[in-house]
Amino acid sequence: MATSNGGADEYRSIPALLHRNATRFADKPAYREKEFGIWQTWTWSQVETEIEALALGLLNLGVNKGDFVAIIGRNRPYLYWSMVAAQSVGAIPVPLYQDAVAEEMAYVLGHCGARFVIVSDQEQVDKVIEVQDQLHQFEHMIYLDARGLRKYDHSRLHQYSHVQDQGRAAREEYIEELKRRRESLDYDDTCVVLYTSGTTGKPKGVVLSNRNIVEAARSSSEFDHLTAGEEVLAYLPMAWVGDFIFSIGQGYWTGFCVNCPESAETMMTDLREIGPSYFFAPPRVFEGLLTTVMIRMEDATPLKKRMFDTFMAHAKRVGPDILDGKPVSFGDRLKYRLGELLVYGPLKNTLGFSKVRVGYTAGEAIGPEIFDFYRSLGINLKQLYGQTEASVFITVQPDGEVRADTVGVPAPGVEIRIGDNGEVFYRSPSAFVEYYKNPESTADTKDAEGWVATGDAGFFEEDTGHLRIIDRAKDVSKLSTGAMFAPKYVENKLKFFPAILEAVLFGAGRDHCVAFINIDLNAVGSWAERNNVSYASYQELAGHPKVLDQIQSHVEEVNRSVAEDPMLSGCQIHRFLVLHKELDADDGELTRTRKVRRKIIGEKFDDLVEALYGGQSSIYTETAVTYEDGRQGKIKATLEIRDARVVPVQTQPLAAE
Predict the structure, then answer these.
(1) Cα separation of 185 and 174, whole Å?
(2) Are 11-280 and 477-643 the same fold in CATH?
(3) How far is C-alpha 263 from the geometric centre of its chain's CA atoms?
């Protein structure tokens, strides 16, 4: 077949790429999983055999072309194989967030009409059983881990390995049908349906075709020169588009090895053992790692801390230039090499980043200080701007053009334009087909010419051609003074401090900004231990006067930084409070990808917002919470409200509309 895109349309589906890899990279590792402390490895030829057995088993169970197969669980090779097996029989995989509660799962399972569900263990089985009466099309569930399931009704419940065994036994009967279905897969057939995190309402099912996924995988792999020799760690939610592109799209396009950690608790140990060459993490992961480093350095000996501070100051000054190949004096290079030996190298090894050749962060903006910290160590960390509807990639940062304040240039094959209101629009071969069973939202987001509205506000720099994202378009507004209000910009600066886990800024239509802050219990708890500050709970620690003093100093430091930007100087924080509870996805305050639901938080804590603006010095509040076991309860607290010092500036109002 003639191609016009470097060969992507020779392989019109993920199953077609699987067959190519099983032939071209037959004995090369394709997947690894750590179980019981031991890494197990499967080659590409073994993976094809495993997937074929499961696909035959699915045919034996009655999976039809076009059926939806939901997949729920942590990152495991078997669940990745489930997605490709479903595709192989013409079905459509729908991965769900494993930490979603039963009611959240019920919506997605009911909306897509999943006939089959493949889950990891008893916990996920129980969730589906809890809501199965609401699922009129649900027929069969397949589980991986049999522990705790022996006495369950198995009339519609099947063990994964048994389904494979039945597929192997029925191979003669179904192999020709499987071949027909695999060979009939077209470039414009649906590859996967991924449900958005739903920051403003019910999740939407994003329909992505084979064309979308394969084109995104091809162009992004070529951009960063990814090869079959890469190693990646698959630890992010399988329901998230980033994991699907990195662990399946790029994994199958390039033939590199996908490594699955044993558990969330062992992720850091497993990361160090694998030493990935290609690594992706959202900002919260990099923030958490940096917090851990800073906590450890606070506990270090004075000599070690002085050495760390000295060499990190040098790295911050020259490290990014060395990484980008820019001129640096011999003396500075020599000192950096010494720092590599004494500080940077051991630190990267501890983090598991010694072999990282390309690192990415996305999902939301990362604090510039956090971003610069990793690049100063010599880690080639870059930002990309993307979304589920784009199959991830909208912009990327070329090597040598990496900056903390932009998200780079349009990704290969992507066109971008800026609307009259500053909203960013794009179109590309990777742009989604539609929202499943939601033509109204599809029409609102994607026009007849293929332009997709991102919902983000931004602009191109005239001199570099790089895109700068200001904030979500719906969140960017004005203060009553006419100054710009862009909350995420300030929130990211606050989250650079290890003591601050989350921040939520308010100010639209008001004359000044106020903020809610969550402390990081690990960082602040470590500080409390070192300083002999006793506490019995998160709430007690969050309200401790010394903790409030510490947070106030961070807020005022951010105010000084924000004041330096004429466009956003009006976003300084005048008053703040430290919340008495952590913002939680189970309470509806965050999405499953830990994005802030600003409107919901503002409505839920409207008494606190009004107290911040009303000049009160404290407020009593009661808040409903959901505990880990599903029980409902209330937290009662009297919160102290503090004023923060602001820097007087001449604000610059937005242009009249």
Answers:
(1) 17
(2) no
(3) 17
The full set of domain ranges for the chain reads 11-280, 477-643
Q: What is the CATH number of domain 477-643?
A: 3.30.300.30
Sheet holding 157-159, edge to edge: 92-96, 68-72, 116-119, 140-143, 157-159
Q: Are 70 and 96 in contact (CB under 8 A)?
A: yes
C-alpha–C-alpha distance, residues 8 and 17, integer Å: 10
Distance in angstroms (rounded) separating the CA atoms of residues 15 and 508: 49
Q: Which residue has the higher pLDDT, 251 or 589?
A: 251
Q: Which residues pair with 515 in a beta bridge?
A: 505, 576
User: Residue 500's beta-bridge partner residues?
Assistant: 519
> How far apart are alpha carbons 330 and 351 in whole angstroms?
28
The 10 Å CB-count burial string (b at 16+, else e) for 254-282 is: bbbbbbbbbeeeebbebbeebbbbbbbbb
Q: Which long-range contacts (CB under 8 A, 24 or more apart) does 617-626 make?
A: 617/641, 619/577, 621/580, 623/580, 623/581, 624/587, 625/581, 625/584, 625/587, 626/584, 626/586, 626/587
Residue 556 CA: distances (Å) to CA of 263, 366, 571, 609, 627: 39, 20, 12, 20, 34
> Tens digit of pLDDT for each residue in 352-398?
999 999 999 987 777 777 899 999 999 999 999 999 999 999 999 99
Inter-CA distances, 118 with 9, 13, 90, 140, Å: 30, 21, 16, 9
DSSP secondary-structure letter at 156? S
Which residues on neighbouring strands pair with residue 502, listed in sequence order?
518
Instruction: Name the band, by pLDDT with cuts 50, 70 and 90, for residue 9.
Output: low
Sign of the Cα torsion 435, 438, 442, 445 reads: negative
Looking at CATH, the fold of the domain delimited by 11-280 is given as: Rossmann fold (3.40.50)
200: amino acid identity, one letter: T
Amino acid present at 647: V
Length of the chain: 657
Integer angstrom CA distances of residue 581 from 176, 517, 537, 547, 636: 58, 10, 10, 15, 10
SS3 (DSSP) at 647: coil
Cβ-based burial of 543 (10 A; exposed 0-12, middle 13-18, buried ≥19): buried
Half-sphere CA count of 149, side-chain side, radius 13 A: 24
The two three-digit tokens of residue 89, written as one number: 């029989």
Residue 632 backbone phi and psi in degrees, to 5: -100, 150
Q: What is the tens place of the pLDDT at every residue in 269-323?
A: 999 999 999 999 988 889 888 888 888 888 889 999 999 999 999 999 999 999 9
Structure tokens at 656: 């009249």
pLDDT, residue 657, reads 39
User: Distance of alpha carbon 578 from its chain centroid, rounded?
Assistant: 26
The token pair at 352 is 């598991």
